[in-house]
Amino acid sequence: MIYLDTTTRKLQLVLAGAKTTNHLKSSVSYYDVINQTKDDNSEYRGSQQVATSNDTTDVDICAAPLHVGTIRNIRNITIYNADTVNATVTVKLDDGGTETIYITHVLTTTQSLIYEDGAGWIVI
Fold this sequence. Notes:
The protein is 0% helix and 58% strand. By secondary structure, the chain is mainly beta. The chain has one domain. The strands form two sheets. Strands 1, 3, 4, 6, 9 and 10 form a six-stranded antiparallel sheet that branches. The two termini are 20 Å apart.
């Protein structure tokens, strides 16, 4: 599971080099648990964030929760290599500037790197 449980934690994507023709596309589906309480009066709100790679510049693919106490639960991450050549992509957690790499993988053209909550990372 990937949780963003503070207002400083976000997910980022970065490429090892510049794109040749097309940037990579990403989509992140998540749900926020708001006002989490012991008696389960929590609110659940789902959403999706899309982004496009920017060569070797970090790109936010899922923003941090806006409010203290909100937990953002990542359900799915899909990164598609729309370029005409292989691309080395890194997905990482940025916690106020401290970075933790989740995965680095070389995607051939038209391959997708996918994260599914409960299943982990796969390439198709």
